[in-house]
Amino acid sequence: MDFQAVLDEIVATLEPELGAGTVASYIPALARVSPRQLGIALRTRAGEEFCAGDAATRFSIQSISKLFSLTLAMRHVGDDLWQRIGREPSGNPFNSLVQLESEQGKPRNPFINAGAIAVADRLVTHCANARADVLTLLSGLCGEAVGFDEEVAASEAATGFRNVALANFMKSFGKIDNDVAAVLDLYFHQCSAAMSCVQLARATGYLCRDGAHPLGGAEVVSERQARRLNALMLTCGTYDAAGEFAFRIGMPCKSGVGGGIVAVVPDTLSLCVWSPGLDETGNSLLGMKALELFVARTGLSVF
Predict the structure, then answer these.
(1) Backbone angles phi, psi at 255, to 5 degrees
(2) How deeply is 129 buried, as exposed, middle or buried, from its count of CB atoms within 10 A (0-12, 13-18, 19+)?
(3) In terms of domains, do 42 and 95 share one?
(4) Strand arrangement of the beta sheet that strand 193-195 belongs to
(5) CATH number, domain at 15?
(6) CA 72 – CA 76 distance, rounded (Å)
């Protein structure tokens, strides 16, 4: 299949719509990003890479980071991780407090904010330097140095009142072990990591390789854990639009309010699309359209 032609066609098709959607204005450092950008990149299981548009531009990965922090936590904690975190779709906004109260501080899944904060708590417990470990994982997976955007991290910390409330709420139920400030420092920093579509398509390659490292044969996670990560992405990875993503696209996906979406076709390829303009669910508007076009042109999905 001529993937380069497919990606070029997708970017050309969507070019008239550049600027559609609304950038995440509640994080001041993200509000300045121009929505008139679109990038797409993929990496096959065999290691071939293709890209088009603004695929080399680094952006704030935001909630895509939850996939990698969860990967780290699964490596450190294994199945014990699920004692405090559920695995069901939430059906509520990603920063909802209501469900957390009714379920006594146990987040519905690891991809909503409360769940990712609970994952960060586990990493603070099990890692000597969790922030460094997150960067080491990201850099190792894509083969290039990845850093935090300190301005974005500070911006999130200064305006993240809902996340502070979520963390303290879970702490009140005994579901957070560490100092809330330390846990949130990790969470805000992981969300601020800056990567490009090319880097993210490469970094998620282990999920189309049964857990094997995209740049070598080493195990990132076990084959069983890779299946479970893909399953969680399909059912919970795109906020409360997961059902719509499964219906229209049919690939495990993880999105972020920076406008990025990573997607996986197990045993075949991993890809990343990015366009900063979001729809009402917090997912990239053109990113979702790009994934729909990709599936329509290639016939690749898990269904």
Answers:
(1) -110, 170
(2) exposed
(3) no
(4) 59-60, 193-195, 147-148
(5) 3.40.710.10
(6) 6
Rounded CA gap, 106 and 115, in Å? 8
What is the domain range of residue 89?
A: 63-193
Lookup result for tokens 């904690």: 77
- Cβ contact 81:106 at 8 Å: no
Specify if 220 maps to a domain.
no
Task: Note whether 41 and 197 are within 8 A (CB).
Answer: yes
**Number of domains making up the chain:** 2
* Cα-only R_g, the chain: 18
- Catalytic positions: 63, 66, 187, 239, 257
Q: Walk along the chain (303 residues) and give the pLDDT tens digit of each residue.
A: 999 999 999 999 999 999 999 999 888 889 999 999 999 999 999 999 999 999 999 999 999 999 999 999 999 999 999 999 999 997 666 667 888 888 889 999 999 999 999 999 999 999 999 999 999 999 999 999 999 999 999 999 999 999 999 999 999 999 999 999 999 999 999 999 999 999 999 999 999 999 999 998 899 999 999 999 999 999 999 988 999 999 999 999 999 999 999 999 999 999 999 999 999 999 999 999 999 999 999 999 999
Q: Which residues contact 119 (CB under 8 A, 6 or more apart)?
A: 66, 69, 70, 73, 81, 85, 110
- Among the listed residues 231, 117, 254, 128, the one whose alpha carbon sits nearest the alpha carbon of residue 181: 117
Q: Name the residue among 281, 280, 284 with its Cα closest to residue 272.
A: 284
- Two tokens, residue 118: 């609970």
Same domain, yes or no: 241 and 261: yes
Q: Which two tokens stand for residue 171?
A: 């702490």
Contact yes or no for 288/245 (Cβ under 8 A)? yes
The kind and range of the H/E element at 194 are strand 193-195
- Residues paired with 284 in a beta bridge: 278
